[in-house]
Amino acid sequence: MPIEKTHDKIILKHPKGPSVEILYYGATVISWKAADRNSSSLSERIFVSSKAALDGSKPVRGGIPVVFPCFGAPEHPDHLKLSQHGFARNQVWDVDSVVMDNEAGVSVRLTLHPNPAIAAVYDKSFALSYVVTLAEHQLSTDLHVGNPSSTDALEFQALLHTYVRAPANDVAIAPLQGKYYVDKTEASLEARSKLKEEKREAVDVRVFTDSVYEDAPSKIDVTW
């Protein structure tokens, strides 16, 4: 299955048309084109802002940024020298290997380890391995965090901050009904800190929305 490497990214191509593009910078997925199951026409599934920098000058605004070792502003004592969302999204990753290449799909593994730039702001030992798998109708992204130290604990937050391209007037997100969340669009700090209960069977984004849910399920359906 075709795997193309350029000076700044790796491109995976499925024989039936779907493709995914991954920048070495941040290991950020910036494109996933796939067809609906009842259509052969390819559509872009990932949102990247028209204002995003793709030249490695700063983290990509959109795509699937890798967040490690802190989410948001750093609070843990080990993270106080870090910028928001940590360093994984603004470091150049290495392409380690092709994990799978057959008719079912293609996988590549990218890795990140300590380097002088990271050591200047973060002195913990770690090993990140990120596997991106493209199938005909599916993109899978799996982040593995290793602690090479046998004596030093590694405390971290990690996530894949996915930006899904979807029509704002039609999209629905579920199941979140009955979950509690903070509404970051509220005007005051007090209101932004107060938990609300989600009453809707499916959440929409027809107005400006920035909500953080507690105890969200491991599977979320985003449909339109």
Automatic annotation (TrEMBL):
It comes from the Eukaryota. This is Galactose mutarotase-like protein. It comes from Auriscalpium vulgare. The lineage of its organism: Eukaryota, Fungi, Dikarya, Basidiomycota, Agaricomycotina.
